[in-house]
Design goal:
about 25% strand
Length: about 150
């Protein structure tokens, strides 16, 4: 059974934090689906991922693109990703079910700590997932580095 990790972004925006988490997940050998709620936002994020640090390369693609099933990272709005991920990273309030948490190695929920609506949505997701018996951890970067603040 997997776990849900909640990442409360307060020091760095999504476009800076996501590549770091994707790199760590790839280091674990996982295929990843980045699930968003808006396709235009995913196109924007896709552009940012291609403009990453000069010393790194993060192979990824958008759902529906040629060879999406072969990509180690797929950006999608769908609940099912073509690359058969073992990790889902939910951004911008994308929904994740307790069944997914149980079936995957890891589910990461990244939310903007400066957006009250995003914080509220994350709290609802935390309650729903932990209420369904999922293991969960809450990570915050308010001190400047990631610290685990809660675990269920």
């Amino acid at each position: 059974m997997g776990a849900a990790y909640f990442y409360h972004l307060t020091r760095a925006p999504l476009e800076e934090t996501l590549p770091v988490l994707l790199d760590k997940a790839r280091g674990a050998g996982w295929r990843i689906a980045v699930r968003g709620s808006d396709i235009e936002r995913l196109h924007w994020l896709d552009d940012r991922l291609w403009q990453g640090a000069e010393d790194s390369f993060l192979a990824h693609g958008l759902a529906g693109a040629p060879h999406a099933a072969l990509q180690p990272v797929v950006l999608t709005t769908a609940a099912q990703a073509a690359n058969q991920p073992s990790c889902v990273m939910a951004v911008d309030g994308a929904e994740v079910s307790a069944e997914e948490v149980a079936a995957l190695e890891r589910v990461c929920i990244l939310f903007d700590g400066t957006d009250p609506d995003a914080v509220s949505r994350a709290r609802v997701q935390w309650k729903a997932l932990t209420g369904a018996g999922c293991s969960a951890q809450y990570w915050s970067q308010e001190s400047g580095r990631w610290q685990k603040k809660a675990e269920s």
